[in-house]
Model the fold of this input.
Amino acid sequence: MSKVAVVVGGGQTLGAFLSEGLAEAGYRVVVADLNGENAKQVAARINTQRGEGQSVGVQVDAGDEASVEKLAHATDEAFGRVDLLVYSAGTAKASPIWDFELKDFDLSVKVNLTGYFLCAKHFSRLMIRDGVKGRIIQINSKSGKVGSKYNSGYSAAKFGGVGLTQSLALDLADHGITVHSLMLGNLLKSPMFQSLIPQYAKKLGIPEDQVEQVYIDKVPLKRGCDYQDVLNVLKFYASEEASYCTGQSINITGGQVMF
Done:
């Protein structure tokens, strides 16, 4: 029986790419997203490519525990187990601290951190129930290791994700479940980064069409992070080859962050 992956935030952009990449690698995939229609569309593409019944799309509000419980139940009903949880939901709002709205800070914590906690809680229960030596992998950011100017809410939540990852790894080690955070460099072509370009241009005092190059110049390998870079590392840490690794925050930054 093929393994089952749950990708939270899997209905668009990076999450959709990871969902389809995991399906290609042989996983049956639960695509979960706040936008339920997007989740179902990604699942439908997977079923067209990989065969009917290989994927289901489910609407979820990852920051709401009842919604996450329903997602865990839907996964159990569809596939009867879970081997890999990928938490890829995220949001960011750029603003200097003196103008940062509390509602924006709270939303960042809810989506980037609380949702990760809730999903790890309920999906680890399924893994433990079935004796599955599973994998939990958070999609994090280099902003979880170094502060990010005008991104205090995002960076605070991502730093919290590193501590949560280490704590989960300790909690779950006796069950053979490993936990990691992937610390991504700038996904320059992602809708999230593109949406922030006007704010970054204002922050840097440069034209918008120069923003990407500024961020490329910060990277020793002189390019942004690609979706495929993330999938490559994700597949390794989800595999048996990484069974002796847990609690790690793995940089995918082109050398921009090295600790």
Observations:
- The first strand starts at residue 4 and ends at 8.
- Residues 4-187+225-252 form a domain with the Rossmann fold fold (CATH 3.40.50.720).
